[in-house]
Amino acid sequence: MAAGYKQMLAEADSAVQSISVDEAASLQGDPQVVMVDIRDPRELEREGMIPDAFHAPRGMLEFWIDPESPYHKPRFAEGKTYVFYCASGWRSLLAAKLAQDMGLDARSMRGGFGDWRKAGHAVAPRAAKG
After folding, report:
1. What is the pLDDT of residues 11-42, one digit of tens each?
2. What are the Cα distances from residue 100, in Å, to 29, 39, 76?
3. What's the pLDDT tens digit per position in 102-121?
4. CA 111, CA 104: separation in Å to the nearest integer?
5. Global pTM exceeds 0.90
6. Of 4, 28, 48, 94, which residue has the fewest beta carbons closer than 10 angstroms?
7. Which residues of 8-35 are buried (b: 16+ CB within 10 A; e: fewer)?
8. Is the pLDDT of residue 130 over 60?
9. Distances (CA, A) of 31 to 22, 27, 43, 79, 81
10. DSSP 73
11. How far apart are CA 47 and CA 43, in angstroms?
């Protein structure tokens, strides 16, 4: 039988360093840290995002990270620390594990964007595509 999501989350949690929303907020502005929002575009339009975060939809993450992919994004080749977040922390934990397995220095933000907003940290509207 295949591993269920709970087992996958437990395995990711044991392998990935997770940080609190307050720790993530303290990293804002650090040029060596990239906040990565993996939520669906509709979530970003509805709720906003962390200011200056990079949006990488979860469904494209493997392709955007891999430098051999025709969809590779140079943002993932900068040798920085990547802090992944989603709405509550589950998707971003799995995304951070994947990114770590692909060679990135990846973290997950516990509690996700929901806890970020509850803590009163800054929220920005989704940047317009240009």
Report:
1. 999 999 999 999 999 999 999 999 999 999 99
2. 22, 18, 12
3. 999 999 999 999 999 999 99
4. 21
5. yes
6. 4
7. ebeebbeebebbebeebbebeeeeebbb
8. no
9. 18, 9, 26, 11, 10
10. -
11. 6
Q: Residue 86: is its pLDDT beyond 80?
A: yes
Distances (CA, A) of 52 to 6, 15, 20, 108, 120: 31, 27, 18, 17, 17
Whose CA is closest to 101, among 56, 58, 65?
65
Alpha helices in the chain (DSSP H): 5-15, 21-27, 41-47, 61-65, 90-101, 112-118
CA dist., res. 95 & res. 46, Å (int): 22
CA distances from 44 to 24, 51, 95, 120 (A): 18, 12, 17, 17
Give the three-class secondary structure for 113. Answer: helix
Structure tokens at 26: 């303290």
| Residue 118, both tokens | 């509850």
**CA-wise closest residue to 75 among 55, 95, 91:** 55
